Write the structure tokens for this entry.
Amino acid sequence: MEIHVDKDACVGCGLCVKDCPMHVYELQENVSVAVRPNNCMGCLSCHEICPAQALEHRGIYGARRHYIDIKVCEMLRKVI
Amino acid sequence: MSAGYIDEMHEAFHSDLVYRAEDIPLDCSPKPKDLEQTLHGLMKLNGLVIRSLEEIAGRGANAVTYRAGKKFGHEVAQYFQKREDVEGALHELSDLLRGQYSFEVWKPEDKEKFIIEENGETFIYLVFHDCIVRQTLRRNGLDQGGPLCQTLFGYVVGAVEEITGRKAKLEIVHTGPNACLKKLILK
Ligand code: SF4
Ligand code: SF4
């Protein structure tokens, strides 16, 4: 697993450090650093909690999404 | 556990996918027509929840849903080959859950083996990737880890007990939007 933290976007809030159950991140000079990427099991809780959307995971298994509302997506496609 | 099986399992969950925080999913994945098997599982599960509710009404939602899941696990697994080894049981289990749940055995990098012995407990970490319960909860804006998750706990425990004849317990370690970590405790 490769984890990339956008250093310019990260605001150093430390939420990912607190939330990750596998202690993957550490704050170093007010920026989050993925110090144990091999401990990541791909839950993506950190993506959900990061206010700066500063995280990127490579090589992750994307779980099936059954809950997507097709009509809402059709509408979104029109505006995005 | 045999290395070949573990490698095969891990291979199935490895991809070149890049997931960015700002990505907005615009499609059901997979296509709805491929979901028939999943929906059948869900309908069956719901039926058993109702039946169990009638049996033990008033005992609390978790007790009810856990019991329903366990029944489902025993019922489905009774047609599978009985075996004592946990590795084989997990292999059978991943086959019989396919279409509704998918999981892999997992370990933190400081552990040497997948079967971990700690504080007098023997357990295996399981990462659940695809999960109809998680999808249902997120579709309805409900928290993960509540009564509906107990159905999955019961399901896994029921199936492992049915296949191995050993008592088991499943504990939640963490829930996330893309995967959940659970601990299968063997007795
Ligand atoms: S995906 Fe989950 S395990 Fe991986 S770094 Fe994020 S919070 Fe930690
Ligand atoms: S949650 Fe996001 S902004 Fe906060 S420290 Fe982690 S990466 Fe930086």
In short: The beta strands of chain A are 2-5, 25-28, 31-34, 55-58. The first helix of chain A runs from residue 15 to 19.
